[in-house]
Amino acid sequence: MLVQKYYESERFVPDKEMDACGLFGVMHTGGVRFGGRMAIDAIKNMKVRGSGLGGGFAIYGLYPKYKDYYALHIIYQNKNLAAKKIVETFLKKHFYVVFDEEIPTNPDIRLFAPPLAWRYFVAPQKSGVEEDVPDDEYVISKVMYLNSEIEDAYVFSSGKDAGVFKGVGFPEEIADYFMLEQLYEGYIWTVHSRFPTNTPGWWGGAHPLSILDWTVVHNGEISSYGANRRFLEMHNYYCTLHTDTEVLAYAVDLLMRRQGLPIEVVAKIFAPPMWEAIRYMSDDDIELYTALRMTYAPLLMNGPFTVIVAHHNEMIGLTDRIRLRPITAGARGELVFLSSEEAAIHAVCPDLELAWTPPGGEPVVVRLHTKDHLRSLNKSI
Amino acid sequence: MNGFNVKFGFRDNFLDNLQPVDFLYHTRVSTNGCCATINALGLKHKELNDLLRETVLQGSTELVINNVFGQRYIGTRLFLPPEANKLHIEVNKFPGNDLGAFLNGHQIIVHGNAQDGVGNTMNSGEIIVHGRAGDVTAMSMRGGKIFIRDNVGYRTAIHMKEYREKVPVLVVGGTAQDFLGEYMAGGIVLLLGLNLRQGEPHRASYIGTGMHGGVIYLRGCLAEHQLGKEVGVFPPDDRDKANIDRYVREYCNHFGGNPDQILNERFQKLVPVSLRPYGQIYAY
Fold first, then answer.
1. What are the DSSP calls for B124-150, one per residue?
2. Taking a contact as any Cβ pair under 8 Å apart, which residues of chain B between 40 and 79 contact chain A?
3. Which residues form the active site (chain A) (predicted)?
4. DSSP state of B87
5. What angle do the packed helices A283-295 and A263-270 form, to 10 degrees?
6. Could you please report the per-residue DSSP string of A299-367?
């Protein structure tokens, strides 16, 4: 139902029903690819956490045939073909486009104002001064250009062998719309049912937010958004999607890919221990945590959050340091789950072997071909 | 901003496409005398709670709910006339948030883990969880008893309260995460730490932050900096010991274990040192 009249401000959300976002992630640590059934059923089980104003999936191991090329998922708002033309001219100039097609959708699924969604498999075509720029940096700079300079065109995802499918609706509707269950397989699936945090529900604002192969789904509200955004702008990340979670995707890319910090350290930058807690640590830890807090103060994520961050070979669950949003991890054999609610894991995996809840600020790191996720077990309940 | 200067209406994910309760009663419930078995597979939380109420109004007093996967508010809308029988509800296996919210006199037994908000603003009755519970267990609880076999999450017993003879009790067999007893205003919390190793401190920090009433009995050890500023540690007196004795025995009745062995360890009593810890801030 469209209501057009009495909303004075786009940031005003009427009849706000206080739901929370639902998050779910599942990974096969053996790298075996599987369909979307578990992710879809689990997020359906947590339907009360969503609002029908947004939902989305990130899938890894998605395009084995094109795994050496950057897979750009680009949407054109209002099905703006002029924007598409500009984008494609731009892509032709800066990339070798090996294949492109419209992302197949199911016309029977009615969603709010679906944009035109297209995917391009590209390799960088560098010239002049840009020849020495590493591929990833090159792609990021072009994605930032497209997002910020071309009206009505937004890059949903830009990683190799990975992709994001998202939009306005319940996540199971988004899955039906993009026919995820029938068409795709992956070894990591993360999914989000979104309540828009102080932002309009629109296709680009839905989660997962991504840059290169990094994706973030987020439950909560990042009240330090302004400070984080300004810091990221100094590193050439521009926030264009009107939603707080975007900063997390870029911060993860900056810290983990560019600066090469391990997630265990990044977790302590986003959710650092209180000064009070640092005081009781060993001398080495005092030095480390003081340095981190001072160096990366503008990347402290304030406010309540639970995130599931994923990239190739890794899926990470993290909450804020006083856990104002829930997370539960579970495992059966090589399948590892992260979820807002434990019952959703049991609903899709009846013979679950382990379920645990880490303390605030303690990441659960699921890595390919390891049992690293069990490291948080001892500190958990 | 995004090309759309429109909003679209909120979609009700609680009330859309609900199955009628009569239909559910005939397809989901099998009764045997006053016992009823309910199959909750795939039901929305409103459907399940409607169905529970209908089953009770049809005369069942012993309910077994199977295939529970995350349905919320189980036990909430079962307010019955004061002279009515109290219900005995068994939940298999994974109830959703706010299990037994506003619970009024009934007994709920969970054979599995519970999620967040167990016993939210519970008035009377009993919740027994054969597993662990999530965050804000016993939030704002005002009467009755909750027994959790294993651990509990953050902010357990936040703003628990008491009034005259109504004193809520929470017994936790394991340990708790941070902010145990935050803003606690009354009631009794027992934290037994049965799954901790010898000499391993409890997990919680900021215990009793803002606490201004009630008491926490703690078995096992604790570093001083784990306590909030508003609580003091004292040895239990005779009345405390009688309380501890009584509830440890009840815990063992539910979950097994040797009460004498548990009682043999040292207990500490945590009580607030001020009745109005924030009086200076908010007084005007």
1. EEEEEESS---TTTTTT--SSEEEESS
2. 44-45, 68-70, 72
3. 21
4. P
5. 70
6. G---S-EEEEEEETTEEEEEE-TT--S--EEEEETTEEEEES-HHHHHHH-TT--EEE-PPTT--EEEE
Q: Which residues of B touch A4 (CB under 8 A)?
A: 5-6
- Domain membership of residue B9 (yes or no) is no
Catalytic residue among A13, A20, A21, A364: A21
A21 is catalytic: yes
Name residue, tokens 């941070």: B178
Q: Per the CB < 8 Å rule, is B10 touching A51?
A: yes
pLDDT for position A240: 79
ipTM for this prediction: 0.90
| C-beta of residue B113 within 8 angstroms of C-beta of residue A354 | no
- Please give the share of chain B, as a percent, with pLDDT higher than 90: 81
User: Number of A:B CB contacts under 8 A?
Assistant: 124
Residue of A nearest to B178 (CA): A322
- In chain A, what residues touch B229 (CB-CB under 8 Å)? none
> Does A322 contact B at CB distance below 8 Å?
yes
Structure tokens at B223: 């570093």
Instruction: List strand residue ranges (DSSP E) for chain A, in order.
Output: 2-3, 22-28, 55-60, 70-76, 95-102, 116-124, 153-157, 162-167, 188-193, 209-211, 214-220, 305-311, 314-319, 328-332, 335-339, 354-356, 364-367
User: Would you say residue B175 lies in a domain?
Assistant: yes
In single-letter form, the type of residue at position A29 comes to T
The verdict on residue B141 lying in a domain is yes
Nearest to A347 among B70, B116, B153 (CB): B70
Q: Taking Cα atoms as reference points, which of A274, A161, A54, A21 lies closest to residue B8?
A: A54
- Tell whether B149 is covered by a domain: yes
Asked if A17 has any chain B CB less than 8 Å from its own CB, the reply is yes
The pLDDT-based confidence of B283 (bands split at 50, 70, 90) is low
Residues B265 and A255: their CA atoms lie apart, in Å, by 48
| Of the candidates B214, B83, B210, B91, the residue with the CA atom closest to the CA atom of residue B143 | B214
Query: What is the extent of the structural domain holding B201?
Result: 132-276
Confirm or reject contact between A229 and chain B (CB < 8 A).
no
Q: Which CATH number belongs to the domain containing residue B150 in this structure?
A: 2.160.20.60
Cβ distance of B175 and A381 shorter than 8 Å: yes
**Tens of pLDDT, residue by residue, chain A (381 residues):** 444 444 444 444 444 445 578 999 999 999 999 999 999 999 999 988 887 788 899 999 999 999 999 999 999 998 999 999 999 999 999 999 999 999 999 989 888 888 999 999 999 999 888 888 999 999 999 998 998 899 999 999 999 999 999 998 889 999 999 999 999 999 999 999 876 666 667 888 888 888 888 999 988 888 898 999 999 999 988 887 777 888 988 999 999 989 999 999 999 999 999 998 899 999 999 999 999 999 999 999 988 999 999 999 999 999 999 999 999 999 999 999 999 999 999 999 999 999 999 999 899 999 999 999 999 888 888
Contact B3 A77 (CB under 8 A): yes
Q: Is A165 helix (H, G, I), strand (E, B) or coil?
A: strand
The domain tally of chain B equals: 1
Domains of chain A: 22-379 (3.60.20.10)
Q: Which residues contact A371 (CB under 8 A, 6 or more apart)?
A: A29
